[in-house]
Structures are given as structure tokens and as C-alpha cells.
Design a protein that fits this description.
With 327 residues, the chain is α/β, with parallel strands linked by helices. It contains 11 helices and 11 strands.
Length: 327
């Protein structure tokens, strides 16, 4: 009898210990290239209590709510152990496209994405318990210039411009990696709007200085998403059985002209000087960037998110600006 009672008590102790252990152990998310604007957004969104967040970075960084692990974005190494048993892997690694498209820069832009994605693929394949989910960044710029047709994830007739090619090669590398135990989604991310990074602070400054007019003809579309909806969309894709390409954008893309008009209204500015294409070309040379980042029409809608029931907190540009400009 005593032996029976002891065995029951011992089993109860094991159960209680295991329950407490699970409460203490937080699910792990690895963010490659996560020390930039988007990685910081997610780290702040999740906080310290929700996940064990590991940032893979080339240089040490002190990002709140995270641990930093060094990698070179090319080779496997000690960092691979972090993937073992992880809940999710998110990859934002890649050289910035905000530069002149010289032969050297083009090569670096493509290789930084392909090599980092390939290295992560090898690491995932080598795991005994690989991450349950792998989200790899892509861009809404994978779609061709369009001022009439709305681009959903079903669209596959991509163009041959440099920006199109970068995204196509990036996604091909990602999906070519055999990983049957890991659900995979390519995030075709639109312009993420927030006050602490990305393009919005620059556009806001231009409008404040009276330079917030249309750019070029102004008929090109801007696909965008509020930073809070960006974080919520990532949460949604992580926790829903969604795989393949996913447009991470608000449901209402806006023409450049209406986008800038709405921004000026939000700031209480009555006018803004327009920027003809020739002036933008000169400015792009001076700032060492490309006019394509402004003039290409990204007319993208998030069909996959909407059909799976995702609800946007900021579906319109007016609501988004009202939120971002309230401080």
C-alpha cells in the first residue's frame, strides 16, 4: 500500500514539475537580420514575457527583450544550435536596396539574400527538431508596375526589372529548401509605416517642410501597412496554417498623389511642392538612391490574410495617419 501511495505521489510531483517547467520555458523565435526596424518592431510588440527572442546579427547589438547571437549570414556555425526546438524562424537578412543600382550593389543585394536564406536552410535541415514555422521576408515589389490591376498572391507573371528579379530569386531560394517538418511562408512586405524607422519619417519631414506634393505623375500606387498591423499580421501567419506567399499590406493601396494629400491634411499643411521626374532623378543621384523606390506602382492587396479572417486595425490611410501623427 505504501509503495502504491508513494508511486502516485511521485507521479504527481513529476506532473507538477513538468507543468511549471513549461510555464517557465518560453517558445523561442529566431530573427535573422533582426536588429533593424522590423526586428525592433516585433521585439517591442512581443515584449520580454511572450517569447525567447534570439537575434542573429553580424555585429553585437543591444536590442530590448532579445538575446544576440553572432553569425556572418553565409556560413553555418554555433548559431545553428539556437534553431533546435524553436517555435519559429523569421528571416529579414539582406543588404538595403536604398542605394544606387550599380553592378557591385546589385550583386551584394542579391547575394546577401540568397546566401543568408541558403545558410538558414542548411541549418533547418540539420535540426533534429527544426522550427515549426519559417517566415522569410520578400517584398511587395516582386509584382510589376501596375496602376489598374490589383496584385494578389495568385499573380505570377512577374517582370524582369532588377527589383522583381531580387524577390523572385530570394523566394526561389527559400522554397527550394526541403523542410517537410517546417511550415514556410514568404512575406511580401509593403511599406511599413511607423515613426521610428522606414520611409514614413522622411515623408513626414518633407510634408512639414512644404515639399509634400505628388512625386512624378502621382498616379503610381503605394502599398503600405501600419506598423501595428504589420506585427499583428506576423502573429497571425505564425499561428495560422498559412503557407506560401503572403502579401503583408493594408487592403487599400493609395495613389502617390492621394497618399501625400492625406499626409498633408494630417499635418495641417495646405500645400506641398510637387516633384517632377527630372527633379527626382537629380535628387536620387545626390542621395545615392533610385527613383524606382518612389515611382514604381505597387498596387498590392492582402488576399491571403483577408480570406483567412485577418482584421486590420488600420485599413485606411486616413486612420493610419491619424494614429501616427497623434503624438
Amino acid at each position: 500500500m505504501l509503495k502504491f501511495i508513494f508511486s502516485i505521489n511521485f507521479e504527481n510531483i513529476i506532473i507538477i514539475f513538468e507543468q511549471r517547467r513549461k510555464k517557465i520555458m518560453k517558445p523561442k523565435i529566431i530573427i535573422a537580420g533582426g536588429n533593424g526596424y522590423l526586428g525592433k518592431l516585433l521585439a517591442n510588440h512581443w515584449g520580454a514575457d511572450m517569447y525567447d527572442i534570439v537575434i542573429l546579427t553580424r555585429k553585437p547589438c543591444n536590442l530590448k527583450n532579445t538575446r544576440t547571437v553572432l553569425w556572418n549570414g553565409v556560413d553555418t556555425g554555433d548559431w545553428v544550435a539556437e534553431l533546435e526546438g524553436a517555435f519559429a524562424l523569421i528571416n529579414f537578412a539582406g543588404r538595403s536596396v536604398d542605394c544606387r543600382y550599380t553592378k557591385k550593389n546589385k550583386k551584394e543585394i542579391i547575394q546577401s539574400r540568397v546566401k543568408s536564406t541558403h545558410a538558414l536552410g542548411i541549418a533547418v535541415q540539420g535540426c533534429k527538431n527544426p522550427p515549426q514555422v519559417w517566415l522569410n521576408a520578400s517584398s511587395a515589389t516582386i509584382y510589376p508596375h501596375s496602376e489598374k490591376e490589383k496584385m494578389t498572391e495568385a499573380y505570377t507573371d512577374f517582370g524582369n526589372s532588377f527589383s522583381d528579379t531580387v524577390c523572385k530569386v530570394w523566394e526561389e531560394t527559400f522554397f527550394a529548401v526541403p523542410s517537410p517538418a517546417t511550415r514556410k511562408a514568404a512575406l511580401r512586405i509593403a511599406l511599413v509605416m511607423g515613426n521610428n524607422g522606414g520611409a514614413f519619417p522622411v515623408l513626414k519631414k518633407l510634408a512639414q517642410l512644404g515639399l509634400g506634393g505628388k512625386m512624378g505623375k502621382g498616379t503610381q500606387y503605394i502599398s503600405w501597412i501600419h506598423e501595428q498591423d504589420f506585427c499583428r499580421a506576423i502573429d497571425y501567419v505564425l499561428n495560422q496554417p498559412i503557407e506560401g506567399a503572403v502579401n503583408i499590406s493594408a487592403p487599400q493601396p493609395e495613389t502617390n498623389q492621394h497618399f501625400m494629400e492625406s499626409l498633408r491634411q494630417g499635418l495641417g499643411k495646405r500645400f506641398g511642392i510637387n516633384h517632377p521626374r527630372w527633379l527626382l532623378e537629380i535628387g536620387a543621384i545626390l542621395l545615392q538612391t533610385e527613383t524606382e523606390l518612389i515611382l514604381k506602382s505597387r498596387n498590392v492587396v492582402p488576399h491571403r490574410l483577408l480570406e483567412n479572417g485577418f482584421e486590420f486595425e488600420y485599413p485606411s490611410i486616413t486612420e493610419s495617419f491619424k494614429s501616427l501623427l497623434k503624438d
